Each structure stands twice: as C-alpha cells, then as structure tokens.
Amino acid sequence: MKTLGDIKKIAVLGAGTMGPGIAQMFAIGGYDVTMWTRSEETRERAKVTLLKSLVTFAEEALIPTDQIDEIYGRVSFALTVEDAVKGADFIQETIVENKDAKIELFDKVDKAVSDDAIIASNTSGLNVFDLLPGNRLRQAVIAHWYSPAQLIPLVEVVKSEQAPQEYADVTVELLEKCGKTAVLMKKFVRGYIANRMQMCLNQEVFYLLDNGYCTPEDIDKAVKASFIPRAVVLGLCKRADFGGLDMTANNYKNKSYTPPEPVDMPRVLAEHVERGELGFKSGKGFYDYTGVDKQALLAKRDKQLFEVFKLANKFMADPV
Predict the structure, then answer these.
(1) Pairing between strand 154-159 and 140-145?
(2) What structural domains does the chain harbor?
(3) Bond preceding residue 259 cis, omega within 30 of 0
(4) Of 63, 67, 162, 181, which is the most buried if we count CB atoms within 10 A?
(5) Contacts of residue 120, Cβ cutoff 8 Å, sequence gap at least 6
(6) pTM of the predicted protein model
C-alpha cells in the first residue's frame, strides 16, 4: 500500500503560469522538487518568479525569512522530461491545456517513470484519462490547482477508474501537508466543482450585461457585498440549511428563477475580444487599466488575497 511516507521526490512538468507556484508549495512542504521546462529562458524566468514569491510569503509571515534560501534550494531544474521524472514518486503535470501537447508529454513520461509513481495532471478542461497511455491509468489522478497556485488554497483531486483509492488519498494528504485545501471528488466530471460553479455565474453575468440590466461595476459591487463573503463562512450547502431547505424547495416550486438560455458566445464578451480588450493583460477589459502600474496592482491584489484566505482558513478551522 502506498503511503505519504513513500513520497520523497516530486517532479513538476511545466514552468509557465502554474509551475513555479506549484513547485513552491511542494518545496514549502519539505520536498525536493525537480521542474521540467523546454527552454533556459523559461527556466530563468521561473527562478525569478519562485524567489520573489517566497519573499512575499515571508513578508506575509507565512514562512520564516531565514528559510527562504533553504526552500528555494529544494527546487532544481531539468531540460528533459526523463531527467525530471527520474526517481520521482509524485509527478505533477502542468503544461498548456492542449490535447496534443499533453499526449506528447505523457508518452515521454511513460518511457521514463517508475511503475508505482503517482502521475497527476493539472488539466482544467480536458479528460486527461483519455490521453494517458492505458498502462499508466492505474497510476493516474487529477490534482487541479487554481491560479495563482501558491495563493489559492483549493486543489480538486479525482482518480482514474483504474487507480486504487490509496493513490487519491495519498495525493490529498500530500497537498494538505503542503498547505493546500484538497477536495477529493468521488468521480470525474469536466470542470470539477469550482469551475462548474464559476461557469454558472458567468452565464448570469453575461445575461445581465448583454441585456443592459446593470454594469460590470454593479455586478462586482453586488456580489462582494452579499453572497461571496457570506460563502466564506457558510459555503453554499450550509447556507441553504440556515435559510431553510423548505424555502429553497418553494423557490423551485414557484419557479421564482428562470435561467437564461445558453448562448454560443455572449455579445458583450465577443465585442471586447474583437476589440483586443482582453482584460488586465491587454490594459483594458470590463475595466480600464491604462496608465496603471501593473506590478503594483498585482502586488496589491496578492496582499488582499492573502488577507482573505487567512480569514477563510480561520473560519474553516472553526466552522459554523
């Protein structure tokens, strides 16, 4: 039986958007981590990102300042998949969300990985169990992180049908040891939990905007002053308990809510994209970021996220 104690070395495959944050959390958990990246340029950028993030963690009193170098030193880099996964007990894939790219990577992993290593994917929208070599499904789980990986606590975990339950259990234990909030799902569904909730919200957001009911600012103000902070305390299912399940049932009976018809593409979203207004990264989206110091704004965002999740963790440790 595989146990948490069997996990000694971890490989993180991909050093782009998610990789450095994921490697950071495993290193904070005390593990030696090898990151694979295709290029030296990406490797050097990942090193800078990792070190800056560790400094921020120290500033937020999440790690001791005198441990920054030690934690940073636990992360090494490899330019081949074979070198990265050699001797690894847990492998976290986190490359681009592209079917062909993942198949190519998993083929390389298949040729180099041991027969008892856990192979985890960070895929957000693909059924990765259809992409892995069949002989590796007994080792496969999904560990789906949220960006920024070092800040957002949630990781959703689900195993393949062929993998033993212990592989999923060990993955949850590993993530929790590294400071994450792991949720173990009973079976795979595309979108998992949080992304499916967000897609439902997005459908309503764009319905309200497309039909001129309110502005983006109105929506953000409304949710930040109502059910989002309430959910930090009660979640969604317990909120229904406190409100009364009979009231929730009556809302269905009375048809007090009619969901909008799904659309192929919301009009307001298409218009922004067509104008090249892609949000923060392009300088304009629903909001205008022209002339804004982006690094300062990102730092402010991260500081506020730290505060929110510190409070959320406090409430989760002592739930209502």
Answers:
(1) antiparallel
(2) 4-184 (3.40.50.720), 194-317 (1.10.1040.10)
(3) no
(4) 63
(5) 90, 91, 92, 93, 140, 141, 142, 143, 171
(6) 0.93
